[in-house]
Amino acid sequence: GNRVGDLARGYFGDYDLVEFDYDKNKMAHKTNELLQKGSANIAEAAFYVDNLYCAVDILHKVGDTYEIIEVKSSTEVKDIYVDDMAFQYYVLNKYGMNVSDVYIMYLNNTYVHQGELDLKQLFVKECYTDEIKVKQEEVEDNIKSIRAYLNNRTEPECDIDMYCRKPYKCAYYKYCSRHIPERSIFDVYKMDWKKRYKYYHEGIITYEDIIENKIKLNANQQKQVESALYNKPDEIDKDGIREFLNTLSYPIYHFDFETFQQAVPEYDGIHPYMKIPFQYSLHIEQQDGTLEHKEFLAKEGTDPRRAIAESICENIPENVCVLAYNMSFEKSVLTQLAKEFPDLSQHLNAIADNLHDLAVPFENKYYYSKDMQGLYTIKKVLPALFPEDPELNYSALEGVHKGDEASAAFADLADHNAEEIAVIRENLLKYCGLDTLAMVKILGKLRQCCE
Questions:
Q1: Quick one: average pLDDT of 314-328?
Q2: How far is CA 49 from CA 24, 52, 94, in A?
Q3: Residue 155's pLDDT band (boundaries 50, 70, 90)?
Q4: At what angle do helices 136-151 and 79-95 cross, to 10 degrees?
Q5: Which pairing describes strands 52-62 and 65-71: parallel, antiparallel, or unpaired?
Q6: What is the dihedral angle through the alpha carbons of 306, 310, 315, 319, rounded to the nearest 10 degrees?
Q7: I need a labelling partner for 323 at 20 to 30 A (CA). Which of 89, 161, 197, 307 fits?
Q8: 97 vs 66, 139, 230, 259, CA distance in Å?
Q9: 420 with 411: CB under 8 angstroms?
Q10: Contact at 8 Å (CB) between 11 and 123?
């Protein structure tokens, strides 16, 4: 978000920046100085009037009027953005500014970086003046209700509902939902959230309530609720597991990618938020149980795509059994790399075509444990199968425990000093390595079930 905002400031040319200060009056004073000077573009223009404060991403001067430019790092316009712009328009009008138009600038997800970054192509600029003018009465009403709310010194009674999740998850949700039991209607796998809250307000909260009221569930949801409520033992469909195992052949290449995304594409051929692979782990398992581990972690601050593609081709032959967990992700990355590097495309596409999915036995409930809570992600399956194995505990890892943490760690890795980089790289290798070691262990558990 910061990167996008910083770049957007140069969209209209030179600009003056109002530096952040916890004292809003200082920021508003600085903005006023720049307005008096006739600044053509003011970034973070601050206005503080009648205890209402806003900072405009870009205030762009057009003749004797000004345009509000709201910058977002998303690739679409959401309703909450329009509300944000409507409030800014309200505050600036209250301040006495002559605002002619209000625009939103967001990322163009079809823009592909080639050569020098083109801001005019990177950003989409759309006018929302008419929509915002219509909202001015609503803004004023909201301000009145918020002020009344703030003047109430007694904690209001407000039950949880959809507004706790949209437009963003509320920071106080844990506090307000403290009365909800550990296993509740809110834990039922893939149930629509509106339906969950409907049942909740009808007093259907616990798994017992769900069964007693004969709530209609699909087969997977029914299995989840009943297995937990009645403390059922693990359910194992040996025929289904054997059918899956028979699709595999040795040696098995247990494979896992990590990717990161750039809001502002820095490399040629990249568009905003495109998945860029930077790391993989590979456990090669022979029929006698022998394991060989290979891995790749790109150099920080570089475009990793060519190097990782070459490493994959070096370590995975074309026609071998490659096993991934939820393989659609690995397949999409391999296919994308094949498009980007035609000289490696045959090899990469062959690997993609030979992918097998270790999630299938759990998705199809050939093996189900109540501890999986209706899910079949590796983060749920692994502890359910190996609850006491410290070697397979993601929580015991340092620094990186899940995929989004890995992405974030690599994305800004180049901004760290050498000592920090070494530690973060080690954490990334251990995390990704555990993903494929976990697959080896899970596959072994499935084989044991059929012995």
A1: 97
A2: 10, 5, 7
A3: confident
A4: 90
A5: antiparallel
A6: 110
A7: 307
A8: 8, 17, 66, 45
A9: no
A10: yes
Residue in the structure block whose two tokens are 């899956």 = 244
**Mean predicted confidence (pLDDT) in 306-317:** 98
Give pLDDT tens digits for 234-280: 999 999 999 999 999 999 999 999 999 999 999 999 999 999 999 99
> The tokens of 216 are what?
């209609």
**How far, in Å, are 53, 135, 317 from residue 306 at the CA level?**
48, 50, 17
Instruction: Determine the pLDDT at residue 388.
Output: 85
- Using CA atoms, how far apart are residues 376 and 361, in angstroms rounded to an integer? 9
Give me the residue label for tokens 């993903």: 435
- pLDDT at position 238 is 96
Instruction: Find the farthest-apart pair of alpha carbons in the chain and give their distance in angstroms, rounded.
Output: 83
Distance CA 11, CA 15 (A): 9
Per-residue pLDDT averaged across 67-83, rounded? 96
- Check pLDDT > 80 for residue 1: no
Question: CB of 74 within 8 A of CB of 27?
Answer: no
434/394 Cα distance (integer angstroms): 8
Residue 68 buriedness (CB in 10 A; 0-12 / 13-18 / 19+): buried
> Do 281 and 256 form a contact (C-beta atoms < 8 A)?
yes
